[in-house]
Amino acid sequence: MSDQRPPCDPQVVSPAPSPALAVSPSESDDLPARGGADSAGRTGHRKASRTARRTAPRKTPRAIRRLARGLGLAALALLLAACQPGEGQGGQGDAANGAGSAPAPRVEVVQAVRQPVSNWYRYTTRLEAPERVTLRPRVTGQVAEILFEEGSLVEQGQPLVRLDLAPFEARVRELEAGLARGRAELARANGEANRANQLVGRNLMAREEAEARRASAQAQNAEVASLQAQLDSARLDLAHAEVSAPISGRVSRADLTVGNVVSAGQSVLTTIVSTDQVDAYFDIDERSWNRDFAEITADQGWPVELQLAGQDDFAYQGELDFIDNRVDEATGTLRVRARFDAGHPSLRPGAFARVQIAAARHRDGVLVPDRAVGTDLDANFVLVADEQGKLAYRKVTTGARFGAWREISEGLEGGESVVAAGPSKFGPGMAISPALVDGPDRAPLEQLRERTRRLAERLDAAPGSPTASVSELVPGPVTDAASGDTTGDAGTLAADAKHLDQEPART
């Protein structure tokens, strides 16, 4: 039969008597009897007690305190021993606790997607219009009328500014009259020259006189030609007094208002920029070009994406259409140009922007949901679930973000299962019941495949391009040329473009 101890009950355990109240046998004899003995007996008893006290050893207060401390510790030990359960009771308690433990929580996990990616480089730029005209008058005159609405779209040949026409019209009329007079004089001079020739043939006029008349006719003919040229110029000035748009585009404000006198070729009336396309010039450092872009040609239509200041995405698609014929010796960079269709009103010349261009070479990468990546002090991590449902902490290096997906450039293999969201809610070594899910919207991955196809087609069109199948080339980590850092989002603009002279960084 096992040793069964009752549970600890403070009311059952009696405290040890206080040593301060304990009475020794010799002292108890000295107390008066309560039974009503006769006074003689009491007197004898007192004498015996006095004798015993004289002969018994006396206890000091220090000894009494030591005795009280020892008795108190002994009582505490007995109390604790009474509270401990027996062996049979302990086994039953453990079994009860085991039977009542909670099951492993159900946690959604997603498999890491493995696919090749390519480096993307970012550069800062300012947009330029392919065509830009500063409108100046070709004649001097007074502004009589502004024919355009500031900031509006204008067509080529549309009148914009009209000068006062009266002086130009008067000049034309004056020259027309002078030309008519000159032609009349020319006709008279020609007639006299002809008659002189006839008279000379009949010896009726001196030869010298005839030659003088012929010279006068020739001079009058030259005068008429001069008057005709002046009239043509006057008519041209009259036409130029009405200033028209030389190109189609968007007109700026009127720099001069009605009544101002403008000088030919000097005074600025307004400016016009083309609106159907915009250009973005940027410089790629020589090392990056030789390493990542050497296979690209200007006639491939290599894709370039553009992001305006204050925007989060690279929403505008363009193509590389110009590569300079030499490297700048001072900066060690190569000037290139990307052209974008300016169908959106936000694409205005002079706007600050950032462009990103894909490298021709590719590498393997791993993608997981962005919410699966947690932050631990200065490191990023994911929680990997093994086949037994145990979670393991894995430090990772992140790359670019594609929609709701994040590239993991180091620390994770494709096909591994990671906690789909909120890894900070769980801990390493925790047992879970994994539930495999597809993860967030995979439309961005489909878009990557389409972009991959276009990149592969353009690479195939270039002689000597690296061999890469359509499924092997997708956009990947983005390296900012201003800082050399690989960034994950398409947001955040750099201040100035300083170009890379190192391998693309990983963050």
From TrEMBL:
Residues 43-63 have a biased composition (Basic residues). Residues 132-269 form the Multidrug resistance protein MdtA-like barrel-sandwich hybrid domain. GO terms for molecular function: transmembrane transporter activity. GO terms for biological process: response to antibiotic. It comes from the Bacteria. Residues 172-244 form a coiled coil. Keywords: Coiled coil. The keyword Cytoplasm does not apply. Its main location: membrane. The keyword Coiled coil applies. One of its GO terms (cellular component) is cell envelope. Belongs to the membrane fusion protein (MFP) (TC 8.A.1) family. This is Efflux RND transporter periplasmic adaptor subunit. It comes from Halomonas sp. H10-59.
